[in-house]
Amino acid sequence: MQSKRHLDRQHESRLGPLAILLILIIVLILAGVVASWRRWEGAPPVVRLNRDFKTLGRKPALSMDVQDPGSGLKAISVTLRQKDQAVNLVDEQYPGPEFLTFWKIGDRTPKTFDLGKLIAEKYKVQDGPATLEISASDHSFRSFFHGNHFEEHHDFAFDLYPPRLEVFSDQHYVNQGGAECVVFRVSPDAETYGVQAGPYFFPAYPIDAQKPDLKFSIFAFAYNLDPKTPLKIVARDAAGNEAVADFWYKLFPKQFHKSDIQIEDAFLQKVVPEILSHTPEIKDQGDLVKDFVEINSRLRKINHANLAALSEKSQPRFLWDGAFLQLSNSQVEASFADHRTYFYQGKIIDHQDHVGFDLSVVQQYPIEAANDGVVLYADYFGIYGNCVLIDHGYGLVSLYGHLSSIDVKPGQAVKKKQVLGRSGATGLAAGDHLHFGLFLQGVPVNPTEWWDGKWIKDHILDRLKAAVEKSQT
Length: 473
What we know:
By secondary structure, the protein is α+β, with helices and mostly antiparallel strands.
C-alpha cells in the first residue's frame, strides 16, 4: 500500500513540471499573439486613383494614393502594358520590423505617385488599348506571413488626338467688364469646352438639340483683367487632350471710377455686430475697425466664392426675356467696378472694388426682379445682408442686396418686375438702398449692357440666329 502511494507521488511529480511548461508555452503564445495583434489584421492596402478613366492622353493627369493603416505597407507595383510592351512605372519596397520585434508594424505613411508624369517620362505613348496593373501588399501575418494583397487591372485606351474646333461667329466687340457671345463647332469627343479668359472659364452650351456640335459661350472680360489678357476657345476630351482656337475680337479697355470712403464709428457700430451675428466664419477680434476690415475683405471673398458655386447650379437654358430692367424710379449712387479706398480717422485701412450698382429710391421700396428667372438663394448673405439671387440661365445670376425683407423662396420662378422684397440697409450698407449686381459664371459683369435691349439683340440673339443659319448652308 505504501509502495502504491509512493508511485502515485512520483507520477504527480513527473507531470507537474510538464504541465507548468505547457502552460508557460501557451501563455507565451497568447502573449505573442496579443502583442502582434495588429500584424494579424486582414485588410489589404487602400489604393485610390484620383479619377476614374477610360482614356488617357500623351500627358495624362492621373495620380495614385496608397496607404495601409493596419500593419503598414510592404510593396507597391504599377506596370503599364500595351501591345507587347510592359513598362514598370512603380516598384517600391518598404522593409518591415525585424523578426525579434514582431509586435511592431510597418510604414503607415500615405504614398502618392504621379502616374501621369511617370507614363510621360518612361513610355512613348501609342494610340490604342492598354492596361494598368496595380498591386500592393502589407506586413500582415495573414496568408502564411505573406500579408494582405491588393490587385487591380485597369483597361483603357490611349487617345492622342485632340478635339476639332471651328469658330462660327465673326466679329466680337468686348468692353472690359462686359460680356460677349461666341459660337463654334466642336467634335463629339470633347467633354469640356468654352472660353478661357485669364483665370476664368466660361462653358459653352448646345445652340440646338438638333445640332449638338454647334455651341455658344456667353463670356466676360473681367473688369480687373489686364487688357492684354488673351481670349481663347478651348476644348478638352476625356483623355486630357486639348484643342485651342483663336477668334477675332476687339477689346475696349475701361478706366473705372475711384472713390474715397470715410468710415465713421456710428457706421461700424451699426454694421459690424449685425454681420458678425450672421457669419460664424468671421471671428470677433474685439476691435470694430479690425472686424470691419475682415468683413470687407475676407468675407467679401467668401461671399463671391459662394456665389460662383451657386452659379454652377444655373439651368442650361434661357430663362430671361428681353432687356433687363433697372429698378424703377431709382437713382444711381455708386457704379460698377468703383475702386474704393477706405479711411478711418485719416488712415487708409482697406481697398476693395464695388462690383454692382447702388440704386436708391425711398425707404422700404419694393424691389423688382430685373428679368424672368428662378430664385437660387434668399437669405442673409454676408456683406450683402438680406439678399436674393436669381438664376437667369446659362450661368447668368442677378443679385439684390441690403434688403429689409424677402418675399420669395429658393426654387421659386419669378417674372420680370415681380416684387422680391423691400429695400433696406442690412449688411455693409450705410443707408436704405438696393445693391444690384450681375454675375456670369460667378464673374461680375456690367449691368448697363444687359439693361440695353439693342446690345442683347446685337451681341447675343442675332449672333445665335446667324450661326444657326450659317450651319444650314
